[in-house]
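Complex 503.
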Amino acid sequence: MKEIKILLLYPPEQSWPKTMVKPNGSLAYPYLSGALKEIDVESYVYDACVGNDDDNLDDIFYKNTPLPSGMMRTGVSDNRILEIASSYDAVGITSIFSQQETQVLHCAKIIKKKFPNKLLFSGGVNAKSRASIFFAAGFDVIFTSESEISIQEVAKIMQKNSKDFSSVGKIYFKNINGKIVDNSHFGEILMDLDKLPIPAWEMLPNKRYWKIGRPHGGKAKHGQELRYASMMTSRGCPFSCSYCHIAEEVEGSKSGAIGKFRFKSDERVINELTILKKKIGAKQVFIEDDSIFGMKRRAIRLLKKIIGFGLDLMDVNGVNMIHLVKKSNKPGWMIPDEEVIELLAEVGFKEIVLPFESANPRIIKKWCSNKLALERFDPGELIKTIKKYKMYVGTNYMLGFPDESRKEIEETVKFAKKMKDYGLDHSNFYLVMPVPGTPMFDYCIKNKHLPLDYNPDRFQWTKANLKNTDVPPQELEKIRDHAWETCNSEEFKNLRKSWVVGK
Ligand code: B12
Ligand code: SF4
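Predicted structure with iron/sulfur cluster bound:
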């Protein structure tokens, strides 16, 4: 059996001038590294945005290089990436963010050129959706789904010194004749999440992330001690929003049923939290579940068991508000579910984001899988109830849906301004960004809101990319910028501005 070593590389980050940069550090590599560890295959995670102990953080993170696109690159040099890659048999490069694709392809090209015999693979929603472009850049294998099982299978074949991956499901691969083979129609997806490997969080450059101090959420203050990590207690979601990467992932799709809500047992979650606290030394944990309340009774049971754990918990992806309200005596009218909100506070939740998305029920129904529409509850009352328990509350709004009228956009901005009065801590405004792998992307291509040669570099939430819309792109960007400026405190704005590329 051949001994093999696998490098898991986060590429350098690219950002438009005046926009934020923060390291990737998402959970794919802790899980994949954990999976490889289970079969005794050595792996190493290198984040080219922040480097390792041999790299000087000041030189690489706080200095940037302009790219031909006009974007700024943050991270180590190409030579350093090649130096790191030289010691490994295979290099994996994650591609979950479409707007980072150019850096992924660039790394693949330089590595393939210098080391044509190394196996290059990628995974994540963007890689899966843009496979032909990835193969053209030199990748040999693209994983089309959650990959804990398939990466083990690929590694075992490499141990046999073979490149015949025809038995591995949920991948596309280039066979020895250079033909692309589609194996996405078979392969196992884990329904029992307790079978997932324990994430190898220790493989991440945590100390560097903590020093940089730009975590997922908005609460971090200047000088605050950050020792954060991410975890997931579940995967999948009962909803299916048009802009979401798992909205159409069901049995038989390229990724399989990863949209289905699946969860870890309470014991497993407690075990992971214990590892994060004791072994990793985390103090803040970002819960990255797609839908932590996907099964409300289970979430309540779990939360009750982790009261007093001593970690600050954050859910900044947005807790679907339907789970924070309950039925009232008035038919169809919902009121804050104070029992759940109090429980969240008691467990240690310090920050919650409410994903209002839009103030317009038509938009919520058409694009946001009819999540809780504003005609069914009093949003101000919900915010006030959460604030009563001293939690930090942010909100998310989306502006510029493909068929959204000027009046509807204005309605959302007006609503956001009104919500500010209830004690909100921040309001974020995202321009609608239909990324590959989502139903909205297909809609926009079909209805000519996006050209076939769209530019993934521009999939950034402050950039308007859609054509044939009621409000022209440049004006929409101005509306967004103005809404953000007027709805947020100077403290919040200054913090976010200090995270801008080059600072
Ligand atoms: C956490 C998170 C972030 C964090 C990440 C840092 C952190 N603290 O973890 C931050 C704040 C940086 C972030 C930012 C943004 N995010 Co975000 N984020 C996520 C989120 C919620 C979780 C990521 C994660 O850890 N997943 C868990 C792991 C286990 O799943 P996974 O990444 O899919 O990995 C599995 C497979 O895909 C595959 N795989 C993945 N990579 C690789 C690589 C190899 C080599 C192999 C073999 C397999 C493989 O195997 C993995 C294990 O099963 C995802 C949604 C989601 N559920 O994934 C969105 C998501 C990735 N984000 C998204 C977006 C749009 C953004 C933003 C643009 C902001 C915004 N408007 O919301 C920015 C862009 C940032 C940038 N750099 O450009 C989209 C990306 C869609 C796209 N095509 O671009 C997602 C998919 C959410 C969504 N449904 O729309 N995000
Ligand atoms: S609620 Fe969130 S995770 Fe669920 S489908 Fe909508 S965007 Fe995706």
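The chain has 17 helices and 20 strands.
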